[in-house]
Amino acid sequence: MDSRLRLLLAAAVASIAATGVAAAQSGGGGGGSLIDVIGRLIDVLQSVLDILSMDSSTP
Questions:
Q1: Residue whose C-alpha is closest to residue 13's, from 50, 49, 40, 51
Q2: pLDDT for the residue numbered 31
Q3: 53 burial type by CB count under 10 A (0-12 exposed, 13-18 middle, 19+ buried)
Q4: Helix (H) or strand (E) holding 4
Q5: b (16+ CB within 10 A) / e for 22-46
Q6: How big is the chain by its Cα radius of gyration, in Å?
Q7: Helical packing angle, 3-25 and 32-57, nearest 10°
Q8: For residues 54 and 1, is the Cβ–Cβ distance under 8 A?
Q9: Which of the four pLDDT bands, split at 50, 70 and 90, describes residue 36?
Q10: Which of the two residues, 54 and 32, has the higher pLDDT score?
Q11: Is the pTM for the entire model greater than 0.70?
């Protein structure tokens, strides 16, 4: 696995984990926190796909 991809995935996991911990510590203010975490996960996955498609298009 490419080292850039490994670093990107590690950063994504850390970001999602930190968001989940912050949401849990905030007292669980309803479903909004979960929706925020899911939204962040989707954003991170889109970024990963963008980087992978950009990386594979370079010769």
A1: 40
A2: 57
A3: exposed
A4: helix 3-25
A5: ebeeeeeeeeebeeebeebeeebee
A6: 14
A7: 170
A8: no
A9: confident
A10: 54
A11: no
